[in-house]
Amino acid sequence: MSERFTPKVPVQLDPPKDDPITVEELSKCDGTDPDRPTLVAIKGIVFDVSKNPAYSPSGQYHVFAGKDPSRALACSSLKPENCKPEWYDLEEKEKTVLEEWFTFFSKRYNIVGKVKDATNY
To answer: SUPFAM superfamilies from the entry (predicted)?
Structure first.
């Protein structure tokens, strides 16, 4: 199953980090400050998506930048109100979609930390 998420162009990833990143710090990494990386968390795991312009302020996925949008990803939603970490109450089908997104991100982007005090691992 996970083979279908393998990037067409191989990506060299760094070893995953588990540095604690506060929600406040994560929110500052939304692509608007050129001195900070652009980060997206999924299920409390933080990915550096800085090299993908889709997460920049003019990109179609900017709504996810600087947040843990696990619920939005699981529901295939780009609505800002769905960009929140809570996903436990979702249907199994949506949880599967979320797991697929996590696999997709983990094959493309470096893991740079974990959301401090996150409860949605």
So the answer is: Cytochrome b5-like heme/steroid binding domain (SSF55856)
Tens of pLDDT, residue by residue, the chain (121 residues): 457 777 888 889 999 999 999 999 999 999 999 999 999 999 999 999 999 999 999 999 999 999 999 999 999 999 999 999 999 999 999 999 999 999 999 999 999 999 999 887 6
Pick from 7, 79, 73: which is nearest to 42 by CA? 73
CA distance 120 to 117: 9
pTM of structure? 0.93
With tokens 């050129």, the residue in question is: 34
* 3-state per-residue secondary structure call for 38-104: CEEEECCEEEECCCCHHHCCCCCCHHHCCCCCHHHHHCCCCCHHHCCCCCCCCCHHHHHHHHHHHHH
Domains and CATH numbers, the chain: 2-115 (3.10.120.10)
Distance CA 101, CA 120 (A): 15
DSSP at 5: G
